[in-house]
Task: structure prediction
Amino acid sequence: MIAEAGLSAVVYVPPALGHAAPSLSLAVLRTLSHLAFVIEKFGGAGHGAFPELKRTFYLALDILAEHQAESEHFVQQSCEGLWSDTGNLSHPVRRAKKAFALSAIEQLISVLSASAIRTFVLPFCSPHLDDARHREIFEAAHSVVLAILSHSAQNLVEVDKSVPDPDGSHEHERSMLITSMVPFYVQCLIKNSTEGKLNTSQLRLAFAALVKSASSTGDYALPWFSIQSLLNVCNASSPTTDGDRVHRLHLALVSSVSSVPLTLLPRLLLAVKSVIETTKDDDVRHGELLEALFEEIINNVGDAEKALAVCWWNEQCAEWDPHVRSNHVGQEGGAAMLVRRETEEPSRL
Result:
């Protein structure tokens, strides 16, 4: 509470009086890092923390994020200080400090340069992306990667005109960062689609974010590479022995419908249709795919792509009608329900 009060007051100190704000933020974050093994018992420093700790943690990071040089120095020190412990996380104190560092880095991604992300953040996260033995670190590492993809994509779509970039180098760096990350991360997600790794919701969210980020580069071969990589694994897997994993990957594919541009949408919908038709003999999985697709079109597909997606869905309903009616997705009739909700609730979209 004392730290929170100090941080709340220091934002009013004029910059001309020195670096009081970032210095205090760094001191608070380093103190919290040393206490990470205690904080962990109270839900960690992130979303699970008690209110006072959560406010202090995020306030310190918000203040630090206003100063790029200090933010990058903090991230560099955090990564270098814990790199030696990458292969040895048997001690709970080491695990707690690593989880804390990842949580803090995730909140600073928006102010880090592409160079800092490549040099420090990605090597810091990579060893933990396939290791689910320490669940908190595993999930935090994936959250950092998704934050990188999401922010980089947002930067490309919504270029900040207030930031001088006369030669387009900043935009090019972000685009190259995404391009270099997509091949490795799609394979990482495929590896983590097995039991005990990412759960279905996490896998769907991560794959959709990956495809959306890849699409933001303007090179549409990149998002399709991600989609085709997933389809290749599904086609090469045995429905008998890998049925659950394949179903999770199918749901991830459906989640990417809202992430592709209009140019790729017809091709993706054709692939989704093929996947759905392969599950007709399994009413439960077939119904889950239809429901997921319906919700994706209703809630997540953008305005530019919605008309095509709605028309496509209505065309398929004639063929899928018996299956659609058997689920709550189609209690009013698949096509009629979709058209009605599309007409009555435009504000939701």
About this structure: Confidence is low (pLDDT under 50) at residues 325-337, 339-349. The chain has 16 helices and no strands.
